[in-house]
Amino acid sequence: MKVLWLFAHPDPRSLSGALKTEGLRTLDAHGHEHRVSDLYAMKWNPVVDADDYAHDPADRLLVGDASERAYATGRLSPDIRSEQEKLAWADTLIVQFPLWWYGMPAILKGWFDRVFVKGFAFGITDPATGRPQRYGDGKLAGKRAMVIVTAGARAATLGPRGVNGDLNDLLFPLQHGTLWYTGISVVPPLLIPSADRATPDDYATAATRLRDRLPSLPTTAPLPFRHQNTGDYDDGLLLHPHLATPHHPGPSAHYTAPPPPAHR
Question: Is the Transmembrane helix keyword given for this protein (predicted)?
Fold first, then answer.
């Protein structure tokens, strides 16, 4: 594998930092290549602005159009181009972060906002049908990703009956709306629960689970998201009525089968 490890935690001495180190050591031991984007260490700028696109501040900033032009003409900010080169090199993306307020840290959201521009991560159409190539197809199809998330909550409370909501539902905007949207297949996430109360034994268990998951990434069955362009959605991009039933509301309707529990 060629792995880009995308990491967002402000303290390298944290449980998250220790697991990143263990993960990279595991990749090395199995002969895999890796590159790292440690966003806090890099002091990554998460804010989209006109400077990203060498855009004239006198003109209105239409982000989609400006970013697409800048990508096509090689005028994107150098920090954005550097991250795009890493992702283009990689066949596997690890996205690791602590779950803060049911989502990813702002610095990581800003990485996707700035790096996944039109023309690079999305924005192509099927020449035969004219339909946009997304949700399973697209510029980044063929790559794989896994989310590693630490959470203060107990594992059961991030399951289907837990008060915090099911983790796959919480991660749906990232796993489905960002990664799958651009064509990246997403394997089930790795949840490290009760992170704020972790003991040395808890860390050892988490490290073992991580070591077990990484070598099998190329063969792990991805989350069974529906493809946009294989017949499940009509021309208005709505699920056909027989697929959108009261028994499968919300995000679950967009899977072809129930996803496995995230805490395995």
Answer: no
